[in-house]
Amino acid sequence: MRIWILILAFLALFSYWKWDRDELSSVSENGEKFSSLSLEVEEPFIQEQEKKKIKSRELILKKPLAQVDSKIKTQKEVPHYKVKSRKDLDFQVVNGWAISFGDVLLGKVQTEAGIQWGLAKATMPSLWKSNVIPYGIDRGLKNPERVLEVIRYFNETTSINFVPIEEGDEDAIVFAPFEDHCASYLGRVGGNQPIFISDKCGFHEISHEIMHALGFIHEHSRNDRDEYIEVVWENIKQGFETQFSYAPDFFMSEYRGREFEFDYESVMLYRPMAFSIDARSPTLKSRTAGQIRIDQKGLSQKDVARIESIYGY
Question: 79: buried, middle or exposed (CB in 10 Å: 19+, 13-18, 0-12)?
Fold first, then answer.
């Protein structure tokens, strides 16, 4: 009896081994079937990756464009930065901030990532309520002494009195670090507004940004600039043209007096070679006998007179 049981068990094992061997052989020898089985495992992964790529491309294509003023849009032969009497501002997005004229902050960009350029509605800058302006220096700013030097200079030279920020101050200027850029809001915007200072910003650049914070625009952005200077567009490095855009008329509508006449020595005027394609070809030229002379270490007489006119209570 035991012998028959052993014989039957042996025959069963032999039959299972032969069936398994034949089945494996047929699968491995049938390349088409093997390929099909392989794809059943990989296909869901491939499809998922492809879906992600397609979704990514669709997101890029659907990124919203900033609204463009219809009047400007129709002037296709005239780039925005060459248009006078505008009511909007070109801006570039730098580290999440919209920056116009190369160094004028408009605010944080509330839009999808990837937007690099756009237009924003221009609003009349607000002046400070007093000539006493609180300031602070971010702890992360390298070499804060350079800021303190400019603060002392303004306090000694102008009617502005910068004082250290204290608890309870509603509005203040805070000097904060920024990569590769010096930038400021135009006028008072309320709260602790930044003046961004990069490692390369020195006395001249910091003075320039403080003037923006006080409400002053670039001298070469004035709408009457063409009477005094020529912007040599072909000599400007590509991508920096908006640095020379016209400012809206109403940015200077309240300014009256001889101190607000064009100033070839203003700290708010770019140097003749600013953003030149080769550092030799001038981007700004005088149209009159006046010569562009920018002081590396201070404000011009008209700069000081302008501050006195507005803040000399």
Answer: middle
Please give the backbone phi and psi of residue 35, each rounded to the nearest 5 degrees, phi first. -60, -40
Strand partners, 183: 196
Instruction: Please write the tens of the pLDDT for every residue from 166-183.
Output: 888 889 999 999 988 899
Q: Which of 274, 152, 256 is nearest to 207 (CA)?
A: 152
Q: For residue 238, give both structure tokens.
A: 């590509």
Beta bridge partners of 99: 92, 105
Convert the pLDDT of each residue in 6-51 to its tens digit. 455 554 544 444 334 333 333 333 333 222 222 222 333 334 443 3
For the chain, list the domains and their CATH numbers: 132-311 (3.40.390.10)
- CA count, 13 A, side-chain hemisphere, 236: 18
Pick the catalytic residue from 48, 179, 209, 227: 209
What is the percent of the chain with per-residue pLDDT over 90, rounded to a whole number? 45
77 catalytic residue (yes or no): no
Please check whether residue 180 is in contact with residue 198, taking contact to mean a CB–CB distance below 8 angstroms.
yes
